[in-house]
Amino acid sequence: MQPGQMGQGIHSIEDAAYHADPAPSPSLSRSLAKLLIDTSPAHVFANCSRLNGSVYRRTRASDEAEIGSAVHALFLKGQDEISVINFPTYQTKEAKALRDAALLDGKIPLKQHDYESVLRIVDALERFRARTGAFTKGAPEQTLLWQEEGGHYARAKPDWLPDDAGAPMWDLKTTDGTATAQAWTRAGFDKGCDYQEAHYTRGAEMLRGEPPDGMLFCIVEQNPPYGIRVFQLSAEARDIGQEKIAEARELWGACLSSGVWPGYPDEIVQIDAPGYLRYAWENRMALKRMAADAASLRETATARLIGAGSFGG
Description:
Elements: E1 9-11, H1 15-20, E2 27-28, H2 30-38, H3 41-47, H4 49-52, H5 63-76, E3 82-85, H6 93-104, E4 108-111, H7 112-132, E5 138-140, E6 143-147, E7 153-156, E8 160-162, E9 169-175, H8 181-191, H9 193-208, E10 215-221, E11 228-232, H10 235-258, H11 275-307
Parallel strand pairs: 2-7, 3-4, 9-10
Antiparallel strand pairs: 1-6, 5-8, 6-7, 10-11
């Protein structure tokens, strides 16, 4: 499907068509919204094929990301879109050629040991689904395409859209680390989970007439024991995400209307040392003072002993 051939609604399309943007005019996605707020409109223009006139092409992702894509295909859609590359690395010409051919064919290239890991991850997820009822009574990876009040389009592709419009949507992510609250809090917000929930839930409400009860983030580890944890944003985090998305919508509409995509402002920005650096430096100074105090005590004690004649004959 070429860009611009799809109208407002809920659609089932391939990832390539989604990322190429099927809306009648350039549409705002979660990733573009995050780029708008975190960097600048100029960065959005440079990275959006519909704006700059480039042709969208799927590029080689990291091994961790390819594992995640393969898990999505097998577990969520029940489709084997994997091309197993029987090489331990991509350092040889033969391995690179097989990988590139798989990408051109729309397949997910995986080295043999990564493919085996994907199968184990999917097994763990299937047990989780049977135990909890998660990822049931709904549809995977549906494209939500809607028109905002200002006339511009927006799009989203939730991993799992429940049949019940008021139920939470699901997002599935794999991690090469751990699925602990501490690890996911940092990684999740770095990836824009607050933008994602706010943008996706808005799209679902615009198209279905009822707001879903937020989003559940299911995180599964890529290594034994393939642990699974489910996280939900707090009310405060949701509010911040909604404010960010509202600001992104306003900025997106203004840039589309004016045709101007400005970069960073020219003024000088003063930055402060992050808390962990200040903490480390204060610890270092405290240790230095303790060492100086200990040396002073030793000198005082030695002087007293000499003054008392303790070392005399």
